[in-house]
Amino acid sequence: MTIIELVAKEARPERRKIIAAALTSGIANAIVLAMINQVTQEGSRGANAQFLTLFVFAVVLYIVGARANYHRTTTVLERALHRIRTRVVEKVERADMEKLERIGAAEIYDRITDNVAVISESAGRLAFFLQSLCIIAASTLYLASISLPAFVLIALLIVGGFTLYASRNQEISAYFIRAAQTRLTFFNQLTDLLEGFKEVKFSRRRGRELREDMVQTSGALRDDTKKANALLDDNFIFGTCVLFAALGAVVFILPLRIESLGESQQKLIAGILFVWGPLGGCTGGLPAYLRSNVALSAIDDLERKLDEALEAGGGKATEDPWQGRLATALEAHEIRYSYGDGGDGGDGKAAFRIGPMSLRIAAGETVFIVGGNGSGKSTFLKNLTGLYRPRFGSLSVDGVPVTEANVAAYRELFSAIYSDFHLFSKVYGLTGVAEPKVHALIEQMQLQHKTSFAGDRFTRRDLSTGQRKRLAMIVTLLEDRPICVFDEWAADQDPEFRKYFYEELLPSLKQRGKTVLAVSHDDRYFHCADRVITLEYGKIRAIEPGSGSAFKPPATHSATKPGA
Ligand SMILES: Nc1ncnc2c1ncn2[C@@H]1O[C@H](COP(=O)(O)OP(=O)(O)OP(=O)(O)O)[C@@H](O)[C@H]1O
After folding, report:
1. Which of 77, 186, 442, 563 has a CA that sits 20 to 30 A from residue 87's CA?
2. What is the pTM of this model?
3. Atom of ligand 1 nearest to the CA of 376
4. Is ligand 1 within 6 A of the CB of residue 377?
5. With contact defined as beta carbons under 8 Å apart, do 122 and 70 qualify?
6. Ligand 1 pocket, 338 CB below 6 A?
7. Quick one: which of 518, 488, 494 has its CA closest to 506?
8. In whole angstroms, what is the distance from residue 231 CA to residue 243 CA?
9. Domains of the chain, start order
10. Nearest CA to 312 among 406, 376, 239, 223?
């Protein structure tokens, strides 16, 4: 879709009004031109009050038409962009997590900010373009009324020139498209520099090598943009030459061919000079137009990818059989999952897989999940919490299977703190929560000297990793969901707070009837669990009662034996 098509589509209800406004300003321009020519011809006789009134009227008409054209075009384009932004945000929200991870953050940031800004900037130029076309149309009609042969010659020159001018658009667009890709690479490298700032500070060589890569990318960006702009500059110069040719034809060639040209010659020259501005506007606006088209097609491309990344069922799961409660058990039946399409991703290394795994977690149970690095603990939890959908097998809660229609309600049974958790600027999902309740939890997490809570926000979030995890714990406690998932939550806590987590917080959650799934490497606290599940190479290796636990494994649970 081009930017003109976008505006035409978006402006359907007011398309006529915009065209009428542009036409009004174009015709008013032509009247001004005709009058000035007439008055110049008639000398002092022409400069009378009647002409002056008409002149002022034409100028007022121009102002009214031009303003309506500019304002409406800008409004329509901004409305279209608002729709695009809103649509992209909604599609991102409804996307499948794994597919979204594959699209990557850089592309989404770039399209929704930079590309939208490029299109937004083109609004004024688009209105000017439309108005210029009307001025050119009206003025050429005026030129035709002065001398038809002259008009035909000038029209041929302008149309021929413009066709040649536009013939390089594809080449120019190709450079802009490549520049857009290079910009994404630069964005990723910049993210590396900012997020890896500490590592860069510790190694001048690392910093130098990263900088060299960034300089190279920036150079490629410079070259592509330079080439595209050089072509555009050539086009602009060519466009000006076409106008010179039109003037040259009127001054040098037409008098040789048409004897009666006489005083019409001056009017024609004035006419050509008058359309010079609008023609320049059309040609000068072309770079912005092409850039906007490239930006728009990049956004279209992202939207297509997001459509393909939509969760099964369109991310609109509406059924809720559980109403936020877990009564008996959460069960996984022979679930299997592999990253990507399960192939080797092109590097000869098999994608990581988990399963088949079967497990029954009784309501109110505290389960620790343990295993070496890369054994699949987080992947398993992402499957169990509905973030990833198992490729085979099924999940059920209280005997009700998890389906595409109820997966959103299923996820809302969990409150999870993954190791890459995010703290929002506002406690979204909990806005309006009673402040004293939050203050009590802040004290419970021993953060009263570090942060506070006001206006649905924690006053400070720039805390240490362990302290930020305690803030995330406050959010979990406020959410008050039946199942709590902690992915190595205690790993960043000091010994005292780690003890508090295992020996006080988890038992208190259990007392409140919560089911807890915690990834842990702290074997000295395994006695705090009802069961300890050990994963190895994506499979359950063992399920043991937590040492010192009175919990008896439910009769129905079954672990798939290693190698099964
Ligand atoms: N987004 C991903 N795409 C492809 N493979 C992935 C992805 N995330 C993880 N993996 C693979 O899954 C394997 C298991 O990762 P996972 O994070 O589940 O392990 P873990 O047991 O939680 O490890 P750790 O104790 O180090 O946190 C990893 O070895 C990795 O190869």
Report:
1. 186
2. 0.78
3. 18
4. yes
5. no
6. no
7. 518
8. 19
9. 3-310 (1.20.1560.10), 314-545 (3.40.50.300)
10. 406
